[in-house]
Task: structure prediction
Amino acid sequence: MADTTNKLNHDDDFTLVEVDNRITEKIDTPKYSYWGSVAKQFFSNKVTIAMLILVIIILLMSFIQPLFSGYNLMDVSKVNDFAARYNWPNATYWFGTDADGKSLFDAIWAGARTSISIGVIATLITTFIGVVVGAVWGSSKKIDRFMLELYNIISNVPLLLIIIVLSYTFGNGFWNLIFAMTVTSWLSTAYFIRVQVMIMRDREYNVASRTLGTPMNRLIIRNILPYLTSVIVTQISQLLPSFIGYEVFLSFLGVGLSPDVPSLGRLISQYSPYMTSYSYLFWLPVLVLAMITVSLYIVGQNLADASDPRTHM
Result:
């Protein structure tokens, strides 16, 4: 009798529950999104946010303000108006005026539009050709031999010298300058991508994928290039300021662009004699140039760091 009572008491201690198959299939780990993690990592840095805001302001001013100012580098209609000449920065002329009575504020943003446009176009062309050629280069041993010899020859010639020679050969012009900048600069990017592809292609999962019959082009597009996003962004962040710097240096020498095309380099060259007398004419374009190159580089580098999956842990 006592055993029966104890058995009944033990049965009351347990309650049958229904099994919910949906709950058993639920994954408790948080959902991972690559681009969401990139955005979270990128915007977690206050310096990055400040530089990004600065880049947006500069881009808006460079591409919108000249549409309303109607700035013309060759305009000398106010050269005899002494009241309009050499005005220091004030409420009417925020950046002052030059010897021809033209607004330096209008000149700087018109010049920045040209410099940024050249830098962006040259960077896109160099990156696209470099990534495509580098991916093929790193996956083919036959092409590797020829491309290495080509790279060893051209890489020993300074890029700036090539740009200057080609600019003199083809003459001044917007697209001529872009051609001179990009005709050989893609080789460095291609070589860098080639090294990364060669490292990635021999990893175990890629070797297994090739063993199972995956074509090399599919292997590169699906398995290798997506992992090189941070590397490609790093290259872009380095190329963009460098191409802007090349344009400024060449325009300072009077090479590359036509005389009627404003650029930051041309402004710096034109106003360099006023470095001490009317210093605002020289230092304000230099300041804007520094803001452009530094902000673009910092934003690019931080974006490259954020796009690296190892920083998402």
